[in-house]
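1st attempt posting a full record on here, be nice pls
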Amino acid sequence: MSNVQESPLLEPNGGQGAVPCCPPLTERPMSAAEAETAARMFKALGDPVRLRLFSAVASHEGGEACVCDISDVGVSQPTVSHHLKKLKEAGLLTSERRGTWVYYRVEPSVLAAMGQLLAMPSAT
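the predicted structure (as tokens):
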């Protein structure tokens, strides 16, 4: 049973994949909707435990991690599950149940969208 969720940082692009929701911060002021979307991401990553979990998944070999491999962040298992749920709700992680374990992954397009949002303009 798959429990994959599309990231709110990305918007469909007419069948040609997904594009970041928001332009780089240096390009123009954000609209209210863009700010809401970006704020969900920053709020989710604003908690040190969530940031550690996100980093553990993003840096795990193969680009995905079993919850059993990333739960050693100094809080109880129910708290880990709560934080992983918040990261999923923010669209930063996707998950898939395999037997009794849940595997999490950060889609490369999410990292690209985050990078684009925070990108500095190129010098010309």
